Amino acid sequence: MKIFGITGPTGAGKTTALNALRALGAEVLDADAVYHGLLLENEGMKEALVSAFGTDILAEQGKIDRRKLAGAVYPDRLGELNELTHPYIMAELDRRIELARREGRPAAAIDAIALVESGAGEKCDAVVSVLAPEPLRVKRIMARDGIDEAYALRRVRAQPSNEFFRSHSDYVLENTEMDTPETFASRAKALFEQLL
Description:
The chain is of the alpha/beta class.
């Protein structure tokens, strides 16, 4: 079974590329969804976060409140949050990759913006970055999230550059203004078929 890391900035078209992989039978593992699930379910991670950030991050029911946690973390404690949570996220990704292997899947894909920084890319047979020009990404984020241009631009510029992703990838899928969702999906599928 192949393990792919799929990364790239928001609005570039990762979902389309991941859907092409799903169509080929791959198990797609969303690192953000894994993290959010662990926040709700993993007592060890909860204890580590409360120890680091205090009981103010808890909701009335004793669960971690994501907004309160974000308030405690940003702007200057993100590195500390990542250090605490990445080992739990990696362990859960490993568990799910093993399940996919036992199910006989041809591949598992780890979907993560911070794939490289987290170390998850080291688990992968190939890292594929999905990239698109900044103006196109801004337009897509505005449409997708219903936000104004200034906010969309701030979100885009808060992430690593296309050059960062390009330099940390084995393969790059460029999603251009000339692409339709169908042409990009077709190109993504062709790359993944080749890699499988």
